[in-house]
Structures are given as structure tokens and as C-alpha cells.
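tool_call: predict_structure(chain=1)
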Amino acid sequence: MGSKRIRYRRAAAAVAAGALPCLAFPAPALWWFAYVALVPWMLLLRSAPTGRRAALEGWLGGAGFIVAVHHWLLPSLHVFLLPLAALVGLLWIPWALLVREFLGGAPDPGRAAAALLLVPAGWLLSELARSWQGLGGPWGLLGASQWQVPPALRLASVGGVWLVSLLVVAVNCGLVLLIAVPGARVPAVAGVTGCVVLTGAVWLWVPRPEVSGALRVAVVQPGLVADGPDSTEQRFAAGERLTRALAGQRVDLVVWGESSVGADLAARPDLAGRLAALSAEIGAPLLVNVDARRPAGPVAPTAAAPYADAFAAPVAAAAATADGGIYKSSVLVGPRGPTGDRYDKMRLVPFGEYIPARSLLGWATSVGKAAGEDRRRGAEPVLMGLPGRPGVRIGPLVCFESAFPDMSRRLTRDGAALLIAQSATSSFQRSWAPAQHASLAALRAAEDGRPMVHATLTGISAVYGPSGERVGAALPTSARTARVYEVPLARGSTYYVRFGDWPVGACLALLAVYCAAEGARSLGLRKPAPAPEPTTPPARTARG
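tool_result:
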């Protein structure tokens, strides 16, 4: 009975310990806590009596982490969040086994030094696996908790958020060695010191983005609109009223949030006309976001596209026919109407915008606010030429696409001077979601060396410079306003843009070498049994 009680207590402790790192993310934003948050969980795993028990506690802790970081989804997913967390939590089992293998017992200095490499690599493996869109995407990566720490942002410019995650886990691993393994203090101190030295070297010697001009970008945040049959019209009218107040402020671009326009502009030429009139009145193009069913069949252009360039031409041609599905699209509108530049969201929110394997999981619509109809996906990223600013192109993303490092990197490599995320978190206003979402833009800006505008309908809207630094004041969820930001542009290329996710490749290679070595060692221990010696009949002797 006592052993069963201990197992239950350890299981509960694993769930609680796995949930602890959520405090390092917004809204608490205790960034420093990330460097110690894994210690209780790792101490529990290293003391697991068996590998099976470590795997169970790694799974439970991973599930606790997912629920804690995504708890604001409960009003939408209800109980469905729990089986989802249980599924994703399985990804922490390999990491848990590595913790027990390298930190359990009394590891010698060699095994302790290996732990400082392989345990962070195992953690990154779990982050990489759950970054697949079908499992929810890269939301809540441990390195993302450092979005407001300048040295960490500099690290992100070298190896992306992945490199930051690796160093955070390595520091936690070093602390576990210092606390629990007195004989491993030398490699533990060396490992933590190495993390500090690497961060300092990157801070001192990695070049900062070279500022080259600026854009005056206005963010329009209309605030909450009461649900009802005319809510989309009210939201549009609120955005229109706030935008009109920008007249005379010499704006280069006006950005509206996600789902700011509730009808396709080809089907509603009156809305297209109102947007064109706004653009003419304030003297700047508008980047709006259309969340609507696209008319099936050929679509007649709503207006001429006087500044559609060679890049936009194929995009406009692809949009000339539609299949009648619902799309979320960034649309650039000038004084003569839509310019022809249109980006259709490519990565959709699981359950919120589509249901994976709907034939099996369609019942989710009966227990939460899951999508009744799957949205359609765009085919490719799009760069948009900015009227009046020759050579300046903007790269739009929609909603949680800002969580994916590869998407903003692709836009930067293709020539984006400004990254823009159009978002709406109105369903989660009184939760941690708006702050978590806004923080991601700082990481993308630092990784790519390009400024990023995070524009929402209801807050938090924020703007970040090419090093991930905050530009101006963020717009809280209580704000209903239009604010102009002086956004610095930058040229040059970061190491992350040039070399991509190299920390991921290095970790996979390291784990592959470890697995190969373990496999070879295991085969070496299984020596074949010696063949039995041949038996001969006993010699007969003659007796006299």
C-alpha cells in the first residue's frame, strides 16, 4: 500500500513539475525562472527506480506542461485539451529516459559532461516533434520565454529559438548536477560557464542589423465588438473610423488585424470602394485581412492594379478562379482598390480553423468551439510591393503563423523588408494568450534581422525592431485606437537566415551518434556462447 501511495505522489509531482515552466512565459513573464524551472522535474526523473517509471513521469510532466502553457484553450476545446495534452506529452519520454540515464545515480565526470550535451538535445527533439502543425505547432518553445532578454535575442539571430532552448536546458542540467551530484561539480560549473561565455561572445562579436531608413506604419486596433448578426459590419466600421483619424500623419502603411473584413472584396465591391477611399484619404495603402467565403468560379478584378509588380502578377492570376471555400487572406488595398497582392493563410490552427481527420474527430465540434467547416489553405508565401516605397516589400503572416520560424525566415530570404503578423485573440481576451502571441514577434524579428509588426483586432498589438527590441508602446487589450510607429528598416542577413535550423541538425546528429554507440555496445555485450566441446567415448582398458 505504501509503495502505491509513493507512485501516486510521484505521478502528481511529475504533472506539477512539468507545469512549472509556464511561469516563464507571458503573462507572468518570469523569464529568469526558465533557467531553474526544469530542475524539480529533472530531479524527480533521475531518481526514478526504473526506466519505465521515468518514461511515465516524463509523459505526465509533458502533459502537464502542455495543459499549463495552453490552459487558455479550455473555453474552446473543453475536455478535449486533456487527451490532446496526453498525446503530445508522449514526446517527452525520450528526454526523460536520457535524464535518468545520464543524471541518475552518481554519474562520473565523463557521463556528467555527456549529460550537458545529450539532455538538451533530447529536449530539443521533443520541441521539434511537437512543432509539426498537426500537433499544434511551435507554441511554448522554452527558448521563446526569453523574448525580452537582449542577449537571448542575439543568440536567436545565430541559431533561432532552438539555440536559446538548448542553452536554457543546459543551464538547468548543470544546476541539477551541482545540487545532486557532488562528484560532478567540475563539469557542471564548466558547462554553465560555457553557456555564459557563448552568450557573451555572441553578444560582443555577432554584428547587429544595420539600420537603413524607416517606415511609418499605423496599427489599427478596433477592440471588442459584441457578437451578433452585424458584428462584422461593426468591426469594419470601427476600423474605418479609426483609420480616417490618421489623415495628415504621413503614413506609409496601415495594418488591420486578422478577420478585419468579413466579406470577400470581389463579392462586396462596396467594401472594396470604402477601403480604396480610405487609402486615398490618408495617402497610404491598407493591409486588411479578409475572412470570408470566396465566390466560386471566375472572379472579376475589383479594380486595376497600378502597382502590381512581377512578383504579384502570378498571385493575382492564381486568385482569378476560386473554389468557393473559406479563406483567411491578407489583401493590400490602394486608392484604386485591391492592388492584386493577396496572401492566403497556409498553416491553419488545428480545431480552430480545421479539424484533423474530421471523419474521426469531428465530434470535437459538439464539446467545444471547433471549426464547423475547414478553412482552405494557401499555396505559397507572398511578398507585396509597397506603393510609394520602391524596393520595399512586406511579408505577411496570419495568426499563429508567427510561431513558425521557418515561415518568417523564408519571407526574409525572399526579400521582405518588413514582416507583418495579422492576428485576432478576441476569444481569449482575459487570458495569457494575447501576451504570449505578441511576444513571438520579437523572436521572429531577432532571428531574421527584420522589423515585425504584430497587429490584432483586440490586442495585444506590438511592434519590434530588427534586433527584437520593442518599438514604441504596445497596445493593450483595453485599447481602441490607431497608432503610428516609426519602424526602423535593416539590411544584411543574420546567421539564422543564412544557415537555418543548424542547432536542430547538430542535436539530431549527436543523438544519432549516441544511439549508434549504444547499439554497438549492446551488440558487443552479446557475445555468442562458446560451442560445446565434442564428446568422445571413454577409453577402454584391458584388464588382466
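agent: Residues 299-321 have pLDDT under 50 and may be disordered. Proceeding to next step.
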